[in-house]
């Protein structure tokens, strides 16, 4: 009986030795530690830090060294810029979105960005509102990208924007902001809402929050209009997890949405560190790591949610409909769209005050001058405070015998003080007081030449430089001769510089406008601009938006 027992003991000893050898081979720290430096976006940093702590306790060994993971937090855009400049010291990077990576890849240093190696979590980009305010949105704004565009469209004065104020995240600095821009733009194009999108983006550029934390805090501020924002689902969870006095709820766009996908990029060069990075990346796909991520409000890469995103907590556990991710070219184009639309404006307005402007407009109680003044007020109301605007009037002999134009308000920032009042107020007052010159003719060509020369001389590279002409469309009518039609066209064609573009935007209102349309088109086209005839005052906002749209293609808008 002792012989089998002795054999069993011997076998147990041998198995124990084998287990000891195997354990120590996988957890051998005899040669010290192997640091793995991870950098991650602030939203996923706490969860990754917890996963890294568990990983370190498990003593993962590479070449007799135990891997020691440290996780630093940094905004993804900042890391991407530093990486493109060759200034990143991390070995392992978790950004928040592949969309951001594609956007950065189009920059001058973007070719240095390495390819991503998979995703570790997701979080849909959603609309958000204060829990107390959400019921007020019923009937005003149903959760959708198209409704958000309508509410933010600066030209839709009678739309949902009267009751709803949309807040956004800067798409050039924030991945959730970029995803929202791309989702909204894709929806707008399918619905043929391009002009509405331009109006919305122009308005949203002045409603930007620096990050999701600031945006969500702004949603709880009492206002006459219900504030609605755009952020990630996880950001809402993290906000509510802090037990704020005013919780926020997620509103899922009916068209579907894009998600942050938290891509992994391995930056290490050292062979041992590369092994450690691969091992830690594998660990991030384990169930224990996934459980930590889901508990922090993230979804799995399959879109599945954990208990953190329950209905009781104001979320929809089922994955929202996923929109088709845009390709690299689309991402680059939308980033450029945002950049161009948000260049400041520098605008010199030429206002026709010739005798025909005193004539009545058939079917209205206004003269042409009154109609044009209303048009100007409507259009200029679209420009933000940092825009530079000035005003000249034109007819004949306005400022001395041989001068057909007169400067009334110099070009400068709307927020700048002029004689004790803001330039914006000075413009409004001046427009309201201007009257037509009863005996005045129309020295349009002389005025265009002088104004275009002035804008060329004072060109601002950081602005969209535009010459706006408001007229009744009668064209050039100068008994003193002056610059002829063919001559002004040759001048504009010669002077226009696509590298320093100054476009003419011409808006005419009145029964004679159609007669002069051919010449108006020629003047505008010579500078990459556009000419419009307004049938009624409300069309003007559309014309200004169309003018803004041309920023996106300038200087090649016409092929």
UniProtKB/TrEMBL annotation:
InterPro entries: VWF_A (IPR002035), vWFA_dom_sf (IPR036465). PROSITE patterns: VWFA (PS50234). It comes from the Bacteria. Residues 346-548 form the VWFA domain. It holds the Pfam family SBP_bac_11. Signal peptide: none annotated. This is VWA domain-containing protein. The lineage of its organism: Bacteria, Bacillati, Actinomycetota, Actinomycetes, Streptosporangiales.
